[in-house]
Each structure stands twice: as C-alpha cells, then as structure tokens.
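Minimal example, chain plus beta-D-glucopyranose.
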Amino acid sequence: MLFILQADYIFLLNDLLMSIRKEKFGQLKNGETVYQFILKNKNGLMAKVISYGGTLTELWTPDRKGKRINIVLGYQKLENYLKHSPYFGATVGRYANRIAKGRFKLSGKTYRLATNNSPNHLHGGPRGLALQNWQTEIIKTSEGAALALTCFSPDGAEGFPGNLTTTVTYCLTDKNELKIKYHAVTDQTTVVNFTHHSYFNLSGKESVLDHLLAIKSDRITSTDKTLIPTGNYLHVHNTPFDFRKLAPLGARIFEPHLQLKNAGGYDHNWVLSGWNNRLRSVAVLYDSESGRKIKVATTEPGLQIYTGNFLAGTPTEKKGVKLKNYQAVCLETQHFPDSPNQSHFPSTVLEAGEEFRSETVYGFEVG
Ligand code: BGC
C-alpha cells in the first residue's frame, strides 16, 4: 500500500514538473478552433505550440544569470499568423524548401506544383502543411509527455501525388531538449521533405549577426539566382561559408561572393558530414554575451541556414515596430532543395506503404 501511495505521489509530482496544458488560441473562418499547448519541463523551460501549422510560437530559455527570454519569433494572435507570418516556427511540408519551376517527374509522370516563390515552388505551396490546422493529441513517451500533431493531405493537394498522413511530435525533455519527430505514410509514390522553421534569436537584440555558428559540413549545394541548386557542390574552404569552426554569422556575410549576392545573406543548404540516417550532432548556435546556446542534432542530410534576409518590414505585435533583416536565424534540417529533380542528391521519394521517419533535436544550454 505504501509503495502504491509513493508511486502515485511520484507520478503526480512528475506531472507537476513536466506538463502540457491545452487552451484555445483562436478560431479560423471555417469555424475550426486553433488550440495552443504549453509545454514545460522540470527545469522551467517552456514552449508553446499551436495546432495551426504545427507551429512553435514561443520558447523560453535562461541566460547565464537565469534570466529567461523567448528565443523564437512569433505572434500572440492567430490573425497575424494568417496575415503576416513568413513560416515563423511552422512545420513545413509536404516539401520544405524549393522545387525548380514547381515541376518534377516521378514514375514517368510530370507533376506540377504551385509556383508561390516565382518561378519556383516553396515550402509545400500556399496551402501547404504550414497553413493547415492539425489534429492534436497529448501522448506519453519514454521521455515524458509529448504533443502529437497529425495532418491529412489528400491526393493532389498542392499538386503532390498520394494521400499523405503526417504526424509531428514535440517533446520538451528534462534534458532541456526540444525533440521533434516526423512520421509520414502515403498510398502512392510521392516526395516528402519536412522541416521546422523557427527563427531563433538568442539575445533578444535586433540582429543575430554577432551569434556564433558552427556546422559539421565542408560543402554547400550552390544555387542559382532563384536559390535552386545548380547540382554542384561548393567546398567551404576559403569562402564565407566556412563554419567548420565557430564563427560569427556576420563576419563574412557581406563579402562580394556570388552565392551571398544571390540570397542577400545566408540562405543555403549545408551538406552535413557523416549522414547515415541516425541522429547525430550537426551544428551549434551560440550567443557569447548571454551564454545561450543551441545544439542541433538530426537524422537529416542537410541544414538550411537562413539569416532572415527577407524579414525587413514584417509586422510585429508592437505598434509601428517592424522586423529588420538578420533579426533571427533559421536552422532548418532537411533533405536538399530540389531533390526530386537532382538524382545525385539523397532521395526524397516515399513509396506507398513505406514509413517516413526523421528526427531533429534542438538542445538548449548555457555556456
Ligand atoms: C527559405 C527562404 C525564405 C524563408 C521564408 C526559408 O526556408 O530558404 O528563402 O524566404 O524560408 O519563406
């Protein structure tokens, strides 16, 4: 009896320390409710996720002195996500990043997608998964409570073949990690590529150009003017793309390198070393002043670093205050852009009956 009581007590205590709370966030025009989930771990880290777009809206982490700030860009109001958000915190799919001219061939058939980033397809299209209201469920995992969000995308949605069911799971572990797992199944051969699109700013200042970045990679996929891979790799040695050792994002971002000119800063896919489909550590982002650090681990072969080169003018919820370029940086784990048209890139094809799985972990530390 005593043991049972004790066990109950520990369980309750654990629930108090690590918790997920559900509340209403807003309502869509079609009457659907958008829910918000507040995830807390035992160390007081807090994340908020909404069902619309499977979007991380807030993430509060401490600095060296224990002062917590929200380190991701986002909104408090649903209407701002609907009107202004450049994929803030979103779960992006069916295909994250670009597909050249919105066209690709699969099993001998040509598919045409929306070209919402003229002349290319971007982030799953104007009605992609980032703009859908996902089904939600709080589940138990070996690491504690997690939030599972599921989205059904019918055959032909945005031009993609196959009925696709995608589930993304967020878990804020007691080791101060945000673990994101993706699972997808289709009933027809299709292509998939998912990413998490948080815009990180570890200092709360107006620029992240003094943040330090390191990536385990010695190549990027070079791109043309429209940010589509040319098919060639560029070795980072002696270029502004060399982040093999910690270097400030801003140190070389304005150098007259053609690749930087095409993108207005960093908006490139780094080819991650040692890809073997297993979870491994691939990158670190660090703000030396506050001590906040993010360690990125993933099962994916690529990492898009996007320094918010097109953020200027994006409204915030403070009256009259707009965002500036380079105010945040996205660390988007992914398969390479335009893989459906580049047969030498790791494949993004998902066959009927196959299960797609991937995982990305953002670990938060102070250093
Ligand atoms: C892309 C950028 C784009 C941004 C917002 C990033 O993933 O690489 O080119 O502007 O998303 O859509």
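Confidence is low (pLDDT under 50) at residues 1-15. The first strand starts at residue 19 and ends at 27.
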